[in-house]
Amino acid sequence: MQLARIEAPDADWRAASAHLSELARDAVELAADIAEDDLAGRVAALAGLICGRHSYAGDSETYDDLANVNLIRVIERRRGLPVALGILWLHTARAVGWGAHGVDFPAHFLVALEGRGTQVAIDVFHGGVPLDARKLRTLIKQVQGSKAELRPDMMAAMNTRDVLLRLQNNIKVRHLQQGKLSEALTCAEDMLRMAPAEAFLWRETALMNQRLDRVAAALKCFERFLALVPGGDAAIRAKAAMDELRARLN
Known about the structure:
- This protein is 60% helix and 9% strand.
- The protein is an alpha+beta fold.
- The protein has two domains: 2-158, C8orf32 fold (Roll); 180-249, Alpha Horseshoe (Serine Threonine Protein Phosphatase 5, Tetratricopeptide repeat).
- The strands form two sheets. The chain has a five-stranded antiparallel β-sheet. A two-stranded parallel sheet has the order 1-2.
């Protein structure tokens, strides 16, 4: 919620916070009627609550709108991208103690509900549809092309930090697409506060600072990148960029 307030300082974050509490209370009421080992029942209950009672859906019409990745705006509009909607699903499931995690599926964030020794993947963008192996293969072909095949690493579980990073990356990419380099840099810096050991983020912030002619900041970011990645082609390119930046100071 705090990250959403940065992007939308005039939005009603108190109403959004109250809605999160409402979702949690509603889920607790529903959970009382679901057997502990009824994973399908949990999926159906969450879909009925989030997509049914509260009318959340994926925004396929204005997909690239920044409102779709701002949690406060998503709550206001009841529309969003998969990762933003997924955060609401994870919040609601965990409110009643149900195991759930994000799935780092290529180009289409999923949520998995956990059972005893099993799990079910859910497409939160399309109404909370459970996805078996056949549907997952169909989905990967839709996002990566007809020759793509499902691999185990595509179903990797994400921790809470990585889910937030994926959300912020969506925001950063949209700022870059709109030519808003300063806003993209601010978003990347927020990501680094969550993940200071992510080398690619230091390189990316260095390059953005370089484009904005923020020489000292760019040099500092390249230095942090090289501390994490001291060798290889990327390190060679970073050192060359630093030489060019230092030449500007002379």
